Amino acid sequence: MTKITLINLIFGSKLENYSAPQTTERTDMQIITLTTDMGVRDHYVAAIKGAVLKSCPSAVIIDVSHSVKPFDVSEAAFYISSCFEEFPEGTVHVIGVDSEPMVNFSGSEGSFPSVLVYKGHYFISNDNGFFGAFLKSEPYDQFFRLDDVLSRMDLFKFPTKNMLVPAACKILNGEKIESFASPFDTFKQAFSHSAHIETNLIKGNVIHIDNYGNLITNVHETFFERYGKDTPFTIYYRNRDYHIDEISATYNSVPNGEKVAIFNNNGLLEIAINRGANMSNGGAEKLFGVRIGDIIRIEFTPRGSRETLDSLF
User: Fold this and answer.
1) 247-302: pLDDT as tens digits
2) CA–CA separation, 105 vs 107, rounded Å?
3) What pTM does this model have?
4) Do 88 and 213 share a domain, yes or no?
5) Which three-class secondary structure state does DSSP give residue 227?
């Protein structure tokens, strides 16, 4: 007697009518990211998350950062641009940095709560320069201004929660943007450092210093490709006090405590001290005395070029 026959004799028709429990996979995950300059000491971030969950109970809330320097939209743009493509299309990104709107303040054209559609993602922020700093010159899909929020002064008391979050939840809940926002053609630009390519020279800037004290620049690895794979170069920072003449694959390509240059996960040139922060010296930031905005220069010396480019410094 087979095992199957024995089971049928014991359970009879009950087995014939049995069906395994059905499982369903969630395919409509509603993701919202939060980037603010509010810190985590106060109740503000909790209030924002509560507002999200009240309107969209199934939302998955991801914190990008709440440690953006107050009112620094360029830093917020850096954080978002560094990670948004890791999220699935349809994700809504709320940027609560300098989020209070301005209407004709001191002759200004004002800043208004807006929605950017870009690469299948939604970005909701006050139009205070964030969108320009984020996109730079990249083309985008659509841009909207939120309707009927500026006439309600009670919303100004906490604009990220009262203006931006409701718009985010409407998108998560399937409402069309056109039902609560109007198309608009332009947005503000914010000052942000850009790398420049000259003859045998790249001029860039430190645009971020991370938690390890690593210096992240605005020099992308594609800039190096223009000079050819085997063209010698020297990276100078702090004028000529410090320099590196090779790009390593990883931090651990050099011994602990040694300086290293890599292209990070976003393709940006990064200067670090391998495990420097672990040695209590604060990493490359403190050891080299470099600050955000400081200039990084990369000299290339292809065959037949001048030996040095001192005149350019």
Assistant:
1) 999 999 999 889 999 999 999 999 999 887 765 566 777 778 888 899 999 999 87
2) 5
3) 0.80
4) no
5) coil
